[in-house]
Specification:
The complex is a heterodimer. Chain A is of the alpha/beta class. Chain A is about 30% helix and about 15% strand. Chain A has two domains: about 200 residues, Rossmann fold, CATH 3.40.50; about 80 residues, no CATH class. In chain A, strands 3-2-1-4-6-5 form a six-stranded mixed beta sheet, with helices on both faces. A four-stranded antiparallel β-barrel of chain A has the order 7-8-10-9. In chain A, strand 1, helix 2 and strand 2 form a beta-alpha-beta unit. The longest helix of chain A is centred in the first third of the chain and has 19 residues. By secondary structure, chain B is of the alpha+beta class. Chain B has three domains: about 210 residues, P-loop containing nucleotide triphosphate hydrolases (Rossmann fold, 3-Layer(aba) Sandwich), CATH 3.40.50.300; about 90 residues, Elongation Factor Tu (Ef-tu), domain 3 (Beta Barrel), CATH 2.40.30; about 110 residues, Elongation Factor Tu (Ef-tu), domain 3. Chain B contains seven helices and 21 strands. The two termini of chain B are about 45 Å apart. Classes of the chains: A alpha/beta, B alpha+beta.
Chain lengths: ~300, ~425
Amino acid sequence: MSNKEQLDYLDELEAEAIYILREVAGQFEKPALLFSGGKDSITLVYLALKAFRPGKFPFPLVHIDTGHNFDEAIIYRDNLIERIGEKLIVGYVQDDIDAGRVVEQKGKNASRNQLQTVTLLNTIAKHQFDACIGGARRDEEKARAKERIFSVRDEFGQWDPKRQRPELWNLYNGKIHKGENVRVFPISNWTELDVWNYIRRENIPLPSLYFSHERDVITRNGVYMAASPFLNMDEEDIVERKSVRFRTVGDMSCTAAVESYADQIDDIINEISESRISERGARMDDKVSEAAMEERKKGGYF
Amino acid sequence: MNILKFITAGSVDDGKSTLIGRLLYDSEAILVDQLEALQRANRKNDDGTIDLAILTDGLKAEREQGITIDVAYKYFQTEKRKFIIADAPGHIQYTRNMVTGASNSDLAIILIDARKGVIEQTIRHSFLVSLLGLPQVVVAVNKMDMVDFSQDVFEKIVEDYKKLAEKVGLKSVAYIPVSALKGDNIVYQSVRMPWYLGESLLPYLEAVEIPVDTQRDHGRFPVQWVVRPQTDELHDYRGYAGRVASGSLRVNDKVTILPSGFNSTISRIELAEKAPDVAVAGMSVTVHLEDDIDISRGDILVSAHNQPIVSQQIETDLCWMDTKPLDTSHTYFIQHNSKLTRCRIQEILYKVNINNLEKDYDENFKLNDIGRIIIKTADPLAFDLFQDNKANGRAILIDGRTNVTVGALMFRANAD
C-alpha cells in the first residue's frame, strides 16, 4: 500500500478510542463516562461525539464533585453539557462527609482527593453502572502501564493487578458478575503530548486554567498551589502573585501549578515537548510514595 | 508520522529491561522527575551507573522480586515515529503474557545473550512470534561487550538463528549486535563494532515498514453498534458503526452481510462530520447501505467479491491462558470481533512442546499450553484463516463461570 493511505498517528489513536467507546456501548447495559473537567475527560467527550453522533450518547456523564473545584472547571462543565445536550450526574463528596461516611482530612496537606473514591463507589452502586469510562493513560504512571483497557473491578471497586485478564488483540472481554464493574480507558495508548496535539488539531476548547494566567499561589513541598479557602494555610505560607498554568485539573487542594507564560496552545505544546517534568510530577497526591498510585487503584480510585 | 508497536522478547538475564531503559534514556524519553524517582530507588549497576532496568518494572511485587510479571506498555516518540513497547516477561511460566504482548504488536525484538547464543528460550519466543503472525522480527544480539565485540560470535549466532527462522516460518528477520548496558548500536552507532555496517536499533525501528492490507476485495467490517437517532429530522437515519478490520470499503462497493447473506451497496461512509469516499483498515467509521436490511452488532459487512468462510466447525490453534485446565465437557463463550456465541471443544488434535517444537499427543491443556483443536460454535462464524487475514481470523475463549479470558484462538482451517 502507499504511505498516503496509512493513518497518521493521531488518526490511529482516535480510531482506536472510538472503537473502544463503541465496544462499551455494545457490551454493557448501563455504562457511564467519568468526567472530571480535565483535558483527558474532555477529549473523551469529543471522541464520544465522533463515535455516536448523530445519535445520543448511550451513557450519561458522571462528575464526582469534591466541593474544592476550580470555578473555571465547573463553568466549563456546565457550558459543555448545555452545548452537547447530554445527561450529567453529579456525585457530591460533601454528601458523604455530611452523612458521616467519610471524615475530612486534617493538617496542612489535607485534601479531599482520597475521599472521592467513596463517593465514586456510592455513585456507581446507586445507579448500578456496569462500566465506567475514564481518561487515564498508561504513560501517566508505572502502575497504570500494566492496566488493561477493560479493567475489571470487584464489588468493592478494587483493582487486583495480579488477577488481570489477558487482553488479546482488540478483543475486549466485558463479561462480569453482578456487582462487579469494568473501568474502560479508551485513551490508554495516548501520551500527554498526543492529547495536546489532538486538542490542537481538533480545536477542542479547554478550561482557562490550562493556559497561563496570574494567580495567588503559595509554595508547598516544592510546588506552587493555588491560594484558596480549601487549602489549610498558616503564617509560614507566603502568598505570591505568579504567572502560572495547570497541567492537570484535579481539585484545588491537590493540583499544583507550574510557572508558565504559555497562553496559546502552540506555546503549551512547545513547553511540554521541552519540559523534562512529567505531568503527574505536578500532583501532590503521587509524591507520597513510589507505590502511591498502585495503592490507590487497589482501593477503587479512578 | 505513524505508530510502531513492538514487543521485546527475552528474560531479565538477557538484559531486556536494560535494553528498553536504554532506548528510553538515550532517546531522551525519560523525564526529570522519573529520573529522580530512579535515583531515590537507589539501584546501581556494579560500575555505579544507574540501573536502567528499573524504569520498566512496574508493580510493587515485581520490584521486590526483581522480575517482570505482567505486560507493561511503554511509550516514546522520536521525530520520525511514535512507539508503543509491550514489555512482556520471557520466562516459560509467563508464556500467556508474552502471547498477549505479541498479539498487540507488529514487530518483535528477540534478545539473544551473545555468550549463550540460540537457546531453548529463543526457540520458544520465535515460535510464539510466528504463531501470532508478527510480520517483522529483529534479533538483537546483546552483551556484545562481554564477548569483546567479536564479529565471529555475532555471525555464528546469525547463522544458527537463520535455521531456526526457517523452521518456525519467520520470513523477515534483521540482525543487530548491541550492548544495552553500554549503549552500543542502540541509539548511536557503536565505535567498537566497526565491522557492523547496518543500522543501529532505533534508526532501524524508525524506518522499518509494516505492511497494512488495504486491498479493496479484502474488505471486512464487523458491526459494533447501530446508530439510530430516531428523532423527527433524522427519522430514517440508520448507520452501522464499526472499525474496518482489513482491506478497504468504498462508496458504491457491493457488500454482503454475514451470516445472513443479504447483498447491498455502500451508499455513504461517515467519519464524524466528514463523508470520505473510502475507509481503509484501522479507520472507525459509520457505513450506510442502499437497502433497508436488519443488521445488528455481531454481523459483518464483507466485500461481495471475496467472502470469508462461514462455518460452525473450525480447526484452530489454541493458547490456553487459565490456571484451570481446558475442560472438554464445558461450553465456553467465543468472542470473534463483535460476535459473541458459545462453543464446544470437539477434538484435541495435538499440543506443541514449545521448547523443541515437537508434537505432543497429550489431551490435557494446562496453563500456557499451545496446540491445535477443532471447535464447534453455536452460531456460524464468518471468518478468514489467520494466516490469510489476521484481523478476521482470531478469537478469544471466555469461561462463563468465571468470565475470565481463558484462551487465544488462531483459526487455521474450515473443519466442516
